[in-house]
Design a protein that fits this description.
single chain, 127 residues, alpha+beta, 2 domains, 3-stranded antiparallel beta sheet, 31% helix
Length: 127
Amino acid sequence: MFVTATINQKHYLTSVSTETNSIYADEPEANGGEDKGFAPQQLLAASLASCTAITLRMYSDRKEWDLDEISVKVELTRNNETKLSTFNRTIILPTGTPPEIQSRLTEIASKCPVHQIMTNPIEIVTN
């Protein structure tokens, strides 16, 4: 799996693509961009949110739980002094979802592949 990010001289609009899909990343106007795409930190939070939602949908479908909609909200905060980044993840299920299903899906959220990547050692090799 690979992703390619390409930027030209237009600040800071970046085309992000795989073999089959593409999106744009950009910086907000306050940072000199044009706000025409997700900021990089938003893409990171979006990876966790979307992977969690997909994982929960797969699990609930396998269990044949009738959940019309599953939403996952992720807020990323960064403490510049301690360098600690915190991802606050909130799972939003339909009203009336039984507590035992809510509890189980909260457990399953940690099984999402992006969660697993982010909570284990990471190595970045630059060539």
